[in-house]
Amino acid sequence: MRAITQRTFGGPEVLVLGSAPVPEPLPTEIRVRVAAAGVNPVDWKTRAGSGMAKVFGEPPFTVGWDVAGTVDAVGVGVTRFAVGDTVFGMPWFPRQAAAYAEFVTAPSRHFAHRPAGLGEVAAAALPLAGLTAWQSLVDIAAVQPGQRVLIHAAAGGVGHLAVQIAKSRGAYVIGTASSGKHDLLHDLGVDEAVDYRREAFERVVDPVDVVYDLIGGEVAVRSLDVLHPDGLMVCLPSAAAADALAAARERGLRATGMMVEPDGDGLEELARLVDQRNLRVVVAETFPLERASHAHRAGELGRTTGKLVLTV
To answer: What Pfam families does UniProt report for this protein, alphabetically (predicted)?
Structure first.
């Protein structure tokens, strides 16, 4: 099968198209013929030697976790899927899933049925970002109707999904993004959009129950100024949140980092929101598999609205 691999850490140019054996599913696993693979910041960070590089070890390896495709084979004990089912998932995270390839094998419970209203490209863009938002806002923050939720980088890959998940929970949502992205934010349901380039959000945002910070650093620390005393701040990426977590402890406020986990139940909840037309995935650009390096270059510019996807 075709697969993107790398033999050293480095820039996007280390990603090359090669070949690898087609994997065989073990008991409880399925094999998915990949139609599309999502591209996430953790992919290019891992490629460069940070991200999940410590989990992977030294190259060669294949990055990527988000997949959408068709079940091609099932292992002994699989009852949730049959050959021919269309699925999407985020298998194995943070271990290597090797999603930038034509076939992937993983436990069946790392996947869910792809909803009818979600095409393969959008389905490939949803799992990692969607589960990150779902687990943060629902499992950790337990967002409730009427709560005020501030989401930083609200037009990004995780942020634009977090906005819709929070709205589906009945929250009042405030999102930060550059002014050019405010129309999209309002279309997604944001109640207040703040242009972080023109005004300090902590001066214009009234206290909130939940801060979902997807930037880290000083933005996370400043967010404590608008967090209700009984509120919670969830910070991503966790590696950039250490100062904010320490500052929260000093002020007697609650803050936590998080790391997403494979979650078939969570995927089914996301699929339900899609079916109810309460969740849509914004895909900024697609690239063929062999142009994975170009996708990484685009992502590393930090200007993407929504998600990037490889078509296989």
So the answer is: ADH_N, ADH_zinc_N_2
